[in-house]
Amino acid sequence: MFTGIVTDLGEIVDLEVHNEVRTFGIATDYKPSSIDIGASIACSGVCLTVTKVKKRGPKRAVFYVDAAPETLAITTVAKWREGSRINLERSLTIGGELGGHLVTGHVDGIARVVARDDFEETSRFTFEAPEPLARFIAAKGSVCLDGTSLTVNTVKGNRFSCLLIPHTLAVTTWGVVQAEDEVNLEVDLMARYAARLAQYEPA
Length: 203
Hints:
Layout: E1 8-17, E2 22-28, E3 40-43, E4 46-55, E5 61-67, H1 69-74, E6 85-90, E7 109-118, E8 123-128, E9 142-145, E10 148-151, E11 154-156, E12 159-164, H2 166-171, E13 182-187, H3 189-199
Antiparallel strand pairs: 1-2, 1-6, 2-5, 3-4, 3-6, 4-5, 7-8, 7-13, 8-12, 9-10, 9-13, 11-12
């Protein structure tokens, strides 16, 4: 589980394409000794398993993850290349601060950025969600986009908007996101279960 609070900005420094799996090497400021083999790290919202760790200088590391066909099909991972920057978050620890909202790292689909409106300090992004996921998105609710926990401001049909503060724009990939870009979308866990309960019919 994660919270949607990005803790580092990683960079793809290695990419290997196998038969149906892609292996990515991701440079990070996380200490090499703190990354365990088998650990889960949210990479732009996608929960991936660490398979190998290498030191990159005294305080930096490169960790490796594999992306399977399902991940490549429903997320933006298939578009990652060497030099791509991605939002990183370590998995939530028991007793840790829940600063955002509960995020599983299981991406539901891809949302498209329809517009970006920049103000003096903040930026408003308007997104278009896949039609089947639109019903899970509500004004004042939470949504996870590219691994970032955001509050939904407005909703109209399958389009919704979020306002990003200067800190988020500075420490995540959102500073360079523009209209027509695609981002990983995970809808709120509670909204998903509420919808399932509403449609449940006992046998």
